[in-house]
What does this fold into?
Amino acid sequence: MKSPITGKEMVKKVELVETEFRKEKFETVYQYYLCEDSGERFEDEKIAQLNLETLYNQYRVRHGIPFPEQLVELRDKYELTPTRISEILCFGVNTYRNYESGEIPSLANALILDFAFDPSKFGEMVERSDILKPKEKERLLRRVQELMENQNKIDFDLKAYFMGNPDPDEESGFRKPDLKKFSEMVIFFASSIQPYKTKLNKLLFYSDFYNFKKTGFSISGVRYCAIDMGPVPNNFQSIFEYLEQKQCVKVTRRLFENAVGEQFQRTETKDFNEAIFTSEELDSLNLVVTKLGKMATDQLIHWSHNEDVWQKNFHAGRKLMNYLDAFSLKAI
It folds into this structure.
């Protein structure tokens, strides 16, 4: 970005600042362009939005406020339009739609939304509603009953087993962990460069953390750990074994001196499904392939060890890494 004052290219800066939102203080990452001649700071529209998203998401996590994607899932669960669920919850007609688009609910409305995630409590709201026609109310109560019955079934939750805490937070890149998306990321790299496992872990890390650096959200919502070989997805071994068993990827094992290398390749029956990704997410994946795909594994490990987010967690013995440290990435 060029300085409006001097016309020269400005330097992009990142720093931690204390910011106030709704009378509460947050330590958040602030990005800006610095005009070195005048000392003035500037933001373009993209940077300004990213700064706001980072602040808003910390507020959501602090107060347990649902993220937009969770609200879409909630509405879909009850098979309702944004207008109809808004009316049932006694919001304004367009309020729920605005929340799905990123507007932050008040704490009072956030509490109502929290109730709505519980089918039994939502059923009580439906019962009390006077805006629903009898047939519509009957249909919706049947749906609520189905959800309550499914809730009571003892079922092995594979996604929860692999992905851990289902709620978005700083360690998931403010994204609800998505096993399907993460699986497709593995398939993407297995199809494009056929990496060995150690390298694959680094490519996945850089894809998620770079996308957060660029947009304020990770791609997959996967949480990453700092181990001696660099960043790795939490529970990666179990997930990879599952993908191999489901024939989503082919894993070829080769003996190298005293170690076994596991190479990930595409299968003939499973193609990469790019339709579940946004254009920005696909750009992030392709950039990682372009910039890091040809890099030797040892070199990629070295780069990952230079990242502040790895050093901060590995040397402190902390398990999960914070996506807010993604803004200091050096490799991309």
In short: Residues 11-63 form one domain. The chain has a mean pLDDT of 92.
